[in-house]
Amino acid sequence: MTQASRYWRKNVQYLAILLSIWFAVSYGCGILFAGLLNRVRIPGTGFKLGFWFAQQGSIYVFVVLIFVYVRLMNRLDAKYGVAED
Amino acid sequence: MDTQTWTFLIVALTSGLYLGIAVWSKAQTTKDFYVAGTGVPPLANGMATAADWMSAASFIGMAGIISFMGYDGSVYLMGWTGGYVLLALLLAPYLRKFGKFTVPDFIGDRYYSQTARIVAVFCAIFVSFTYVAGQMRGVGIVFSRFLEVEITTGVIAGMAIVFFYAVLGGMKGITYTQVAQYCVLIFAYMVPAIFISILMTDSAIPQLGFGSRGEDGTFLLDKLDGLHEQLGFASYTDGSKSLLDVFFITAALMVGTAGLPHVIIRFYTVPKVRDARTSVGWALVFIAILYTTAPAVAVFARTNLIETVSGASYTESLPDWFKRWEDTGLVAWVDKNGDGQVNYVAGPAFVGKPTFVTDEAERGPSGERLVTNARTENENELYIDRDIMVLANPEIARLPNWVIGLVAAGGLAAALSTAAGLLLVVSSAISHDLLKRSIRPQISERGELLAARISAAVAVLVAGVLGVYPPDYVAAVVAFAFGLAASSFFPAIIMGIFWKRMNREGAVSGMVVGILFTASYIIWFKFLHTGPESQEDWWFGISPEGIGTVGMLINFAVAITVSRWTKEPPRAVQEMVEEIRVPRASR
Predict the structure, then answer these.
(1) What is the value of pTM for the model shown?
(2) In this complex, do B88 and A63 lie within 8 Å of one another by their Cβ atoms?
(3) Residues B357-379: what's their mean pLDDT?
(4) Is there a domain that residue B261 lies in?
(5) Is the pLDDT of residue B37 over 70?
(6) Same domain, B28 and B164
(7) To which H or E segment does residue A6 belong?
(8) A84 touches chain B (CB under 8 A)
(9) Do B77 and A46 touch (CB under 8 A)?
(10) How many angstroms separate the CA atoms of B455 and B434, rounded?
(11) Of B378, B399, B433, B473, whose CB has the highest number of CB atoms within 10 Å?
(12) Euclidean distance between CA atoms B421 and B197, whole angstroms
């Protein structure tokens, strides 16, 4: 396998993991299991957990996911010598 | 100073600022005009993207929509932010590496086809004009409501400002004005939100405030759920839409966001591939500040509204703002049982939007404005337009006059920045994709820049006309913009990057079938077969807003099947795909 295809495979692996989390928090916690999670409350607040994921939590996770990806890819670029400058 | 003076002052100052930036950042080349010379720092591009993305509807409408929909409003919150994850991971870095100017550029080159390019051009123009009509209208409404001029005058004033910086500065001018506009709009959104959070809860941070206890010691959300139950509304924190529909709408909005040309094009403007990744992250940070505040504002406004108006006597206990907004036609009250008190329960008070009696002096027994609409059977007596939530919030919470002026300037900034971004897509689609890449490839750099300016100018004029004479289906066509972006651009771009084997035949047939399917479903259920009964005919209960997801799946399926049976793409194209997958060729 060439360097380039190894780099690409690693990238696709990262994508698969991060997009699974993306799917789990929004479609999972925020929609499909929201009713179930609503039985639990975030301690000390009025937030039911499913509702909170749908209107707050998923958005925070989205932001974190992007910056995690940025870090992972910057490291990967450096490792394979494909980083710019 | 009174509200009027404050509003005028703040609006004039901010508009002057935008014009000043335009003069400072004049475009010299086509590269400046289309992609700001690819010299925009990632942080600035993030801010510009956020302003580009958040329209008049996000600023004025979203909190209102959520406050009426409760949990169901989450589709917009997740749908319009989750798409940025897709952008950062699946699109932006590769398109930046590709390094041309527009979305049709990529589609045309990757699928070595003028047909694909032209299909993409028309989708881009259609989607952008659909969107821009609402923005110009928004500009007009903000001007007319806060400065008491005609809507037409407001639209013309907005056109003049956009004309100046979009035509002169192109993408470069637009980018730096958008940075300024973001600052104005986020400040204008957060100040009232924080004020109200302090007034209603023990927290100054709205995102925490709406999960905390109110003055009476109960959790705000519990109180709101209780009020809803009492008045017969669906519980605020639980949904009433079908799970499948919520799922499909959220997906269509996410994928549509990632496929909208005016959003994608912003990531062509940064210097490097790694900047493209980072700047999507910044964009989402800046968007999330408003999008996580909106549901808090929704809860505050909803609670406040119910407590203030429910059961209040029109002549004695209703606050002034109620009557002021009644004058603008955004609130209406029909005293069905003749007790002089506002009875606010679930169900529409009358059929459709209010049409008031023409004679202003003709009033009901309590002095309310009379409407001619047919009354409904239920006991609800109150009509409230959703837009009022953000616009009237400062008044409802009795905030100082300058805050109201600030909200006007914020709404204006949101509408102007989005309009400018969309108009640039239209102008570059015409001057670059149609003229330079299709009709007259030999056109000179100066000629193309001039053509870009002229088409931007024409686009501003068309948008203005759409703003003055809005087609009455503006609200309905938003589903169109997202549905089409989801069912055309998104699959074509994704497969173009992630699957080398995808060829011209597959991509074109996928796009055409995806668009036709989505468009016919939306046209059928939005224009031809409407009314509450039509909902029973929705396929699997999927609303027109969510059908773009199905269109996208069909696009993928058709494209993959067709490409399997046709010739693989030429060697050069496959090499190009390999090239865009890495930021820089390895040593």
Answers:
(1) 0.91
(2) no
(3) 82
(4) no
(5) yes
(6) yes
(7) helix A3-23
(8) yes
(9) no
(10) 11
(11) B433
(12) 33
Locate the DSSP E strands across B171-227: none
- The whole-angstrom separation of Cα B293 and Cα B69 is 16
User: Could you tell me if B21 and B177 are in contact, meaning their C-beta atoms sit under 8 angstroms apart?
Assistant: yes
Encoding tokens for residue B369?
Answer: 């404005």
d(CA B214, CA B386): 24
Tell me: do B69 and B190 sit in the same domain. Answer: yes
> Which pLDDT score, from 0 to 100, does residue B479 have?
66
Whether B448 and B576 share a structural domain? no
Q: Which of residues 23-82 of A touch B (CB under 8 A)?
A: 26-27, 30-32, 34-35, 38, 42, 45-48, 51-52, 54-56, 58-60, 62-63, 65-67, 69-70, 73-74, 77, 80-82
Q: Residues with Cβ < 8 Å from B68, sequence gap 6 or more? A: B302, B386
- Considering the domain architecture, whether residues B436 and B505 belong to the same structural domain is answered as no
Kindly state whether B284 is in contact with chain A, defined as any CB-CB distance less than 8 angstroms.
yes
Instruction: Write down which residue in B423, B445, B470 finishes a domain.
Output: B470
Using left for φ > 0, alpha for ψ between -120 and 50, and beta otherwise, residue B319 falls in: beta
Q: Which of A18, A26, A51 sits opposite B71 (nearest CB)?
A: A51
What total number of domains does chain B contain?
Answer: 2
CB A58 within 8 A of CB A25: yes
Residue B356 CB burial class (10 angstroms; 0-12, 13-18, ≥19): middle
How do the domains of chain A map onto residue ranges? 3-79
The CATH code of the domain that includes B166 is: 1.20.1730.10
Categorize the per-residue pLDDT at B558 as very low, low, confident or very high, splitting at 50, 70 and 90: very high
Domain boundaries, position B184:
1-206+272-306+399-470
Over residues A48-59, mean pLDDT: 94
Look at residues B470, B500, B524 and tell me which one is the last residue of a structural domain.
B470
- Tell me: do B96 and B145 sit in the same domain: yes
CB B579 within 8 A of CB A5: no
Residue with tokens 């865009």: B580
Domain check: are B75 and B160 in the same one?
Answer: yes
Residue B477 is predicted with a pLDDT of: 64
Give which of B177, B170, B159 is closest to B18, Cα–Cα. B177
Q: Are residues B421 and B487 in the same domain?
A: no
pLDDT confidence bin for A18, thresholds 50/70/90 = very high
Torsion of CA B30, B419, B107, B45, to 10 degrees: 70
Q: Residue B363 forms beta bridges with which residues?
A: B369
Minimal C-alpha gap between A84 and chain B (Å): 6
Helix (H) or strand (E) holding B382, with range, is strand B382-384
Task: Please say whether the dihedral angle defined by the alpha carbons of residues B48, B88, B84 and B492, taken in this order, is positive or negative.
Answer: positive
